[in-house]
Design goal:
Layout: E1 2-7, H1 15-27, E2 32-37, H2 52-63, E3 66-74, E4 77-78, H3 80-89, E5 97-104, H4 112-124, E6 127-136, E7 140-141, E8 144-145, H5 148-169
Helix pairs in contact: 1-5
Length: 170
């Protein structure tokens, strides 16, 4: 099982990247897992104008069996960098299993992940893990996850993603 974990935030202090990194550490013990950090590539907002980094990401998506998407919340929706990635790099995501790791500023943005779910399920007929990790500012301290509850939710998310993702591939 080849799993791509995509951290979509461009923030140097990305909290969703911390969720992705923790999930990567858990899953890499069980599966072929790759962590892709969107901060490492140049993004173009125009359709069909892709950079070399975006081409590399497209290839990673094509080569993966399933995808975990790390996202931040902006104005109760997905962030702009993730929208650019979805518009320009996800054409090979058709029918893949996916999960969502979300970091938000507060408690009231928990439905923002539904926007991403709708896009992935309607555009590429992807299949979603029902469990989502949703963390807020209070769950972090500087550049670390500072919540036992969040750590436990990540472990459960990774376990279920591995178990269900493996069944879908068989």
């Amino acid at each position: 099982m080849r799993t791509l974990i995509l951290s979509s935030s461009l923030s140097v202090e990305s909290k969703s990247y911390l969720l992705c990194r923790k999930t990567y550490k858990i899953l890499t013990e069980k599966v072929d897992c790759k962590l892709f950090d969107a901060r490492s590539i140049s993004l173009r907002a125009f359709h069909n104008e892709t950079t070399e980094g975006m081409k590399k990401l497209k290839q990673e998506i094509k080569n993966s069996d399933n995808i975990i998407i790390g996202m931040g919340v902006h104005c109760y929706s997905i962030n702009d960098s993730l929208k650019i990635i979805l518009d320009n790099c996800f054409e090979e995501a058709e029918g893949k299993f996916f999960g969502i790791l979300c970091a938000a500023g507060g408690e009231k943005s928990y439905l923002a992940t539904q926007h991403l779910s709708q896009i992935c399920m309607n555009e590429w007929r992807m299949i979603q893990l029902p469990r989502i990790v949703y963390a807020t500012t209070k769950d972090f301290k500087k550049d670390k996850i500072n919540s036992i509850e969040t750590e436990n939710r990540i472990k459960l998310f990774a376990e279920e993603f591995y178990r269900i993702g493996g069944k879908l591939l068989n």
